[in-house]
Design a protein that fits this description.
- The protein has 400 residues and is α/β, with parallel strands linked by helices.
- The protein folds into three domains: 3-65, no CATH class; 85-165, no CATH class; 233-398, Rossmann fold, CATH 3.40.50.
- It has helices at 3-11, 18-29, 37-48, 55-65, 77-83, 97-104, 108-121, 179-189, 208-217, 250-263, 296-302, 319-323, 340-350, 367-379, 387-398; strands spanning 134-135, 141-143, 150-152, 162-165, 195-196, 205-206, 226-227, 231-232, 235-241, 268-274, 281-283, 293-295, 308-312, 354-358, 382-384.
């Protein structure tokens, strides 16, 4: 029935085998597409596309072949019309800390379920508030609001806190690797070098100067000399913000991490993750599951002050997340800092060479987000996460 679709995919460079095509036919026969057009799309993509680099190519072929087939969008056009009216976006937004805490406690699955329920219930537009799909307010659905977590529906990205955009169909040029970005970052990281020949290694490096001298002294009889190799003695402690608004910069941070890992010339490299601030615990995995946790005080007690410390994060959060008693460590030491800000000051006091790399510019909207950005910038020298910013940051780490 869809043989022309198979040949269209192949003509556009998608290597779909007959085995994969027959698997699709079998899956449809078993009803795995749920008797829906959207289900059929996801089933095709699951079985016929081998790499995310081909997602866009597949989408273009799918739209070309099925362009005349009507399908139900996730978000109705009527609702999008309500949400895309800039003339109604006035002063509806008011920060509600209690509601923000409630929203932060919701899982992504709960928010997805609630959105489906709201769209079935809602019959008119809504602006402000914390329940309906609308603009501003503290609702976890809609756009231009202040909720720290949710799904954006319509509108434009403002605060980059949504974990998903409903109804979005955005073609992206997926790349198979980050070679160019990683290479540029690697070159910038090579500014972070302090060589020493006083290392306990055998003399294996060819010593040009002394070979020439000894050969000359022996009347031209070649005498080869070797010396101990000089190594980069820099030790690096990398702490990266993970999750929330940092998801927007995942690809950029991935390129930085690859560059730091592959550059290979640091004497030692330790990597930890945190969310917003290194509170009572940091983590050895960006998933920040409890089994990967490490007490932050252990870092301060066991990683010496000779390490060069690099924080990576957007420095944007609600003020209470930086300055309030907000910790991931429920059974912490009573003498431990009670806020993320205090932990940052402890890092500043322990390590003389520390910088903050920021993938985001200073926000121009709202005192809540600029307050935390400016506070952290006063503690650490802050540099943009660009090639030029990274080079400047490396020079700062080596300054006395």
């Amino acid at each position: 029935m869809f043989e022309d679709f198979l040949y269209l995919l192949r003509r556009n460079g998608l290597k779909v085998s007959l085995t994969e095509w027959m698997a699709l036919m079998e899956a449809m026969d078993k009803g795995l597409h749920g008797s829906s057009f959207t289900g059929f799309y996801h089933l095709c993509r699951c079985l016929l596309v081998k790499s995310e680099a081909d997602f866009d190519r597949f989408d273009r072929c799918f739209l070309e072949y099925f362009k005349d087939v009507p399908f139900q969008q996730e978000v109705s056009q009527e609702l999008l019309d309500w949400l895309n009216r800039p003339d109604v976006l006035q002063d509806y937004a008011n920060w509600d800390e209690e509601q923000a805490l409630k929203n932060m406690g919701l899982s992504e699955e709960e928010i997805e379920r609630m959105l489906k329920e709201r769209m079935q219930e809602q019959k008119e537009e809504h602006n402000g508030g914390n329940y309906w799909v609308g603009t501003h307010g503290m609702s976890t659905f809609g756009n231009s609001g202040l909720s720290p977590k949710g799904i954006r529906v319509g509108g434009q990205s403002m605060y980059k806190r949504a974990f998903r955009v409903a109804g979005e169909r955005k073609f992206r040029d997926f790349r198979r690797d980050n070679t160019l970005d990683t290479r540029q970052f690697q070159v910038a990281l090579r500014h972070l070098r302090q060589f020493s020949g006083l290392v306990d290694l055998p003399p294996t490096e060819f010593d040009v100067d002394n070979t020439i001298k000894d050969t000359a002294d022996s009347g031209g009889m070649l005498k080869v000399r070797y010396k101990r190799p000089r190594e980069n003695t820099v030790k690096v402690l990398l702490l990266m913000d993970s999750g929330g608004s940092m998801d927007y910069y995942a690809q950029l941070c991935s390129a930085l991490f690859q560059a730091v890992s592959k550059v290979g010339h640091f004497k030692d490299l330790k990597v930890y993750y945190f969310h917003n601030c290194p509170y009572g615990r940091v983590f050895t995995s960006p998933t920040m599951l409890s089994e990967y946790g490490q007490p932050t005080q252990w870092i301060l007690d066991n990683i010496s002050s000779e390490y060069k410390v690099i924080f990576v994060g957007d420095a944007q959060m609600a003020p209470y997340e930086l300055m309030g008693d907000y910790s991931y460590s429920p059974n912490r030491d009573p003498n431990a800092p009670k806020s993320g800000l205090e932990w940052l000051h402890r890092f500043r006091g322990k390590y003389p060479n520390v910088i903050w790399l920021n993938p985001s510019r200073r926000p121009t909207w709202g005192q809540y987000w600029t307050q935390t950005y400016d506070t952290i910038e006063r503690i650490f020298p802050m540099f943009p996460l660009t090639v030029e910013g990274l080079e400047d940051g490396m020079k700062k780490l080596l300054s006395r």
